[in-house]
């Protein structure tokens, strides 16, 4: 709670330092992978002996072709296992979503006019206006001039006083 906020320049500096360190780690990892690959190839795949007659070379090529075929079969089997596992994972994810159910987000209040609401629903191609006032027919007001009989103002005040007493008593 009593921590000071980091300034943006400090944050950017730290971020750039972290990125530089990560970049050096990635470069080192690439170098290590190259060295490991060379060591593996030297151990498992000794350089071919190409000295000899044509029959020996043909035999060597057949061995290489057999090895390539075997490795291709293994790679294909591994790929099919991975694809099957991925499909199973996707099916399980769908089952989980079906079991849990999709949570509907809370609706937000949006201030929108009826015209813009219709435009959002129907698209901009349809031109529908909800200006209902334009559909109303015009009505002319007739001016009525009725003159109320002007009574005695004192009597009016006495009526109001009686009403006031009625409310105060209850």
Distinctive features:
single chain, 170 residues, mainly alpha, 4 helices, elongated, Troponin, coiled coil, Troponin I2, fast skeletal type, actin binding, actin-binding
SSE map:
Elements: H1 8-44, H2 54-100, H3 114-122, H4 153-169
> Helicity level, as a percent range?
55-70%
Question: Biggest β-sheet, characterized?
Answer: none
Number of helices: 4
**Secondary-structure element order, as H and E?**
HHHH
Shape annotation: elongated
Estimate the mean pLDDT confidence. Answer: 83
- Which range does the strand content fall in? under 5%
Q: Structural class given helices, strands, pairing? A: mainly alpha
**Rg, Å, rounded:** 45 Å
Distance N terminus to C terminus? Answer: 60 Å
Overall strand count: 0
Low-confidence stretches: none
